[in-house]
Specification:
The complex is a heterodimer of chains A (248) and B (244). With 248 residues, chain A is α/β, with parallel strands linked by helices. Chain A has helices at 40-47, 70-77, 95-106, 111-124, 140-152, 170-187, 198-204, 231-237, 241-247, and strands at residues 2-11, 14-24, 29-33, 55-60, 63-64, 80-83, 158-162, 190-195, 207-212, 215-220. Chain B has 244 residues and is an all-alpha fold. Classes of the chains: A alpha/beta (248), B mainly alpha (244).
Amino acid sequence: MIKIEHISKSFGERLVLDDITATFERGKTNLIIGQSGSGKTVLTKICIGLFEPDSGIVTFDDRPFSNTKEKHKIDIRKEMGVLFQGGALFDSMNVEENVMFPLNMFTDMSYEEKLERVNFCLNRVNLSGINNLATSELSGGMMKRVAIARAISNSPKYLFCDEPNSGLDPVTSELIDDLISEITEEYDMTTIINTHDINSVLKIGQTINFLHKGKLWWQGDNKSVLNADNKELNDFLFSTELTKRIKI
Amino acid sequence: MLRKLGDYLILMWQAFSKPDKALVFRKRLLHEFFNLGFTSIGIVLILSVFVGAVATILVAYNTDNPLLPEKLIGFSARQMIVLEFSPTMISLILAGKLGSQIASELGTMRVTQQIDALKVMGINPANYLILPKIISCLFFIPVLIVFSIVIGILGGWLACVFTGVITPTNYVVGLRSWFEPFSLTFAMIKTVVFAFLITSISSYIGYNVKGGSVEVGKASTQSVVVSSIAIIIFDLILTQMLLT
């Protein structure tokens, strides 16, 4: 379980996050949603330790993470898997080396054991047999799936996904959503997904945190989100032609 | 300026920490030896042979006096090549080649979040990415400079053979005259300092890129400019300290 309590963050004069408190539960896909500029990426970066909050605290299973020394963070970092928006695959390595990278760094497995694990993870994301492809040869959807394989290769307890569907077609987006949801249950991970994809919200939003202008505006789940009595949330959800028609 | 110097020192402190895994570090080191070192042999070879030849012809042109012995040309060319041309000029060329390569590689990794990915995995990115580059250059650039000195002197001999400015025999006699081994020590000290400046400055600039591809390009240019200025400043300081 990941808890964030009273998180605030400013950049210069601009208050980006204002007193955010939320709990992200284990074994569930926890969504942070909101418009561009609402502060969700900053909140995710605070959770993974790329930014420090001005006030408040982030804890991973009651272990403090924010505003602690780097050497204290390392143990928790090794339990994290992160799927970055662009995949952030190492372009000097091929697919196999990318997925094997966390195993090379943090385990003493033999090459055969590591290869077996890599093949298992690639198989899990439906990408068997592409071990020797360069990252430049992958499509957007394949990149995201290789990045998921890398994120889960070291069996993380916490998975963070920054806009996993951005730039993908609806079919591939659905595939990625299913995959994240399945591996969350399968590995009993605490998964946090930062998204503004309405389809993901409805499909895999087991808990939903809606940010608006740096504040936590609404909390709920995918069952209650469509009937929420919250103007800003409704404006966000029903902003597209398709969702407007659904509402009617 | 002071803040940047402080950031640079902190980055070097982070880079010079114990590697996360020795085996991975060794692989990275070998990769950088090839990536930064071996790929520079060609340019050093071509430049050195021509610089040596030009140095010899220039000395011959400026000492065209019957009162001066011909062997002075070989001696002066050797001194120019050993003391200045090879360590400084080749380092400036390497600042262009390696500096831009390092800054653009790290800058691209920064803007595509590859450095963030390393950090969130619990890996020290400065140590993982920068230390192998610095160590490989600290070992390989002095080797390249020794190589450059030898090829430069050979270039001077070729100039004698093909232009006839002096006889090759007198050139070789000049090369062997008044030799002080400290000249080579001085050249190596300068080279090691320059190698560190090139890799550390370029790494610092590349590592701290903010923005996108335009900023990566700017960082690449900036790393060459700053490394080159640092080299000529330290050239003056070291020459004053060690030769006077």
